Amino acid sequence: MTAEATGVRIDCDGPVATVTLCRPDVLNAQTPAMWRAMSDFSRDLPGDVRVVVVRGEGRAFSAGLDLSVAGATGPGSFAELATLPEQECADRIAEYQGGFAWLHRPDVISIAAVQGHAIGAGFQLALACDLRVLAEDAKLSMAEVTLGLVPDLAGTRRLVELVGYSRALEICATGRRMDAAEADRIGLATLVVPAAELDGAVRDLTAGLLANDRDAIVEIKALLAGAGSRTHAEQQRAEREAQTRRLRDLAGRGE
Q1: 175-191 tens-digit pLDDT
Q2: What is the reported pTM?
Q3: For residue 15, how far is the Cα from the chain centroid?
Q4: Which domain holds residue 233?
């Protein structure tokens, strides 16, 4: 399907893939068609891609769920989901989650380039990425509670990992908005830059990631991603095993 039909444009340039939400007239409000498009792309991601950049066209990253779709009566609407058997409804939501969860797969590093609003599903899309570069005008909110809903696009664990349980609870239960300065202060932002410098900052970060050995970065990502669930001894063992693999691999290259 075309970008006009799905609302998502995918571009690959060697080791860099860019996912662009391209509905600027509605501040890149998201639909199930967009989530399916992102999930489909993840299955066909070229093997040489190392960095995935997620961005929004226009003045916002994403204003969240498109309520004109969700509030209607057709496929993907709240009304339709509410009529489904419980397991079928859960399965449908799992399908939607697939458009987000792949962004922290082990073999790529994902970067969210966030300007303007990142609300609800937009905030969760930014959270799905490994790194978040925020423009100074960014406004973030986990606004699902204001609709009587919960965040269900794989964002809750990521939020807790980044800011801790109590802060995550306050953010989700109030649905309030935070600016880029606060997001930086509490650990949500990797980097905050003036809006005019957002694209350049993402390019520089991407270049820094690509400058180093891919296999080493994959090992590093796995070590850090699993660190929170391991004991100190288990983490040290994981480090030893990863380093052994790297040493053997590097020695093999020299033969």
Answers
A1: 999 999 999 999 999 99
A2: 0.94
A3: 18
A4: 213-251
